[in-house]
Amino acid sequence: MSQADKLFCLVRRSWIKATPEEKLRQAVLHFMFDKGSYPNGLVALEMLPSKTSPLRRADIVSYWKNSTGSIAPLIVVECKAEKLTPQAILQAGGYNYYLEAPFIALACPQESFWGWFDHSKKSYAFQPGFPTYPQLLTLLNQA
């Protein structure tokens, strides 16, 4: 694999194959760290949702210290190299069923959106864009 076929992963801190989905994942990570103020030490890639979940992996999971001082999932991010579909939303929601993060986000080259589970409607409520870490913490403190 030539250097042109690789990119440096900010979380793994190693060179990886530059697939279309990996390029998007790294672009999302750059936003998260550079503009979104996400702490690098609280971000994990390709997380297994749980030991009892199917052997699939959430693309990006960011964590926070909850009110008990424990580290807990804050947002689950699903990255797709292709256009986002209803199946991608179901996939992210499926990961979050096990992780129980208060927020999920989806990103593709054309768009990104994020949201939370609205228990009264029994579905996710979404808005366009990608949230910053302080924005998510502020929303949690308002709840």
Structure description:
It is a single chain. By secondary structure, this protein is of the alpha+beta class. The chain has one domain (41-142): Alpha-Beta Complex (tt1808, chain A), CATH 3.90.1570.30. 27% of the residues lie in helices and 34% in strands. It is built from three helices and eight strands. The chain has helices at 20-34, 86-99, 133-142, and strands at residues 6-9, 14-17, 43-47, 58-65, 71-79, 103-107, 112-118, 123-128. Strands 3-4-5-6-7-8 form a six-stranded mixed sheet. Strands 1-2 form a two-stranded antiparallel ribbon. It is globular and about 50 Å long. The protein starts with 5 loop residues before the first strand and ends with a helix. The mean pLDDT is 88.
Q: What's the structural blueprint in terms of helices and strands?
A:
Layout: E1 6-9, E2 14-17, H1 20-34, E3 43-47, E4 58-65, E5 71-79, H2 86-99, E6 103-107, E7 112-118, E8 123-128, H3 133-142
Question: Into which percentage range does the β-strand content fall?
Answer: 25-35%
Give the helix tally: 3
Mean of pLDDT: 88
As a whole number of angstroms, the C-alpha radius of gyration is: 15 Å
Question: CATH topology, which one?
Answer: tt1808, chain A
pLDDT < 50 runs, ≥5 residues = none
CATH class: Alpha Beta
**Main sheet: strand order:** 3-4-5-6-7-8
Report the count of strand segments: 8
Number of domains: 1
| Secondary-structure arrangement, i.e. CATH architecture | Alpha-Beta Complex
The termini sit apart by: 48 Å
Helical proportion, percent range? 25-40%
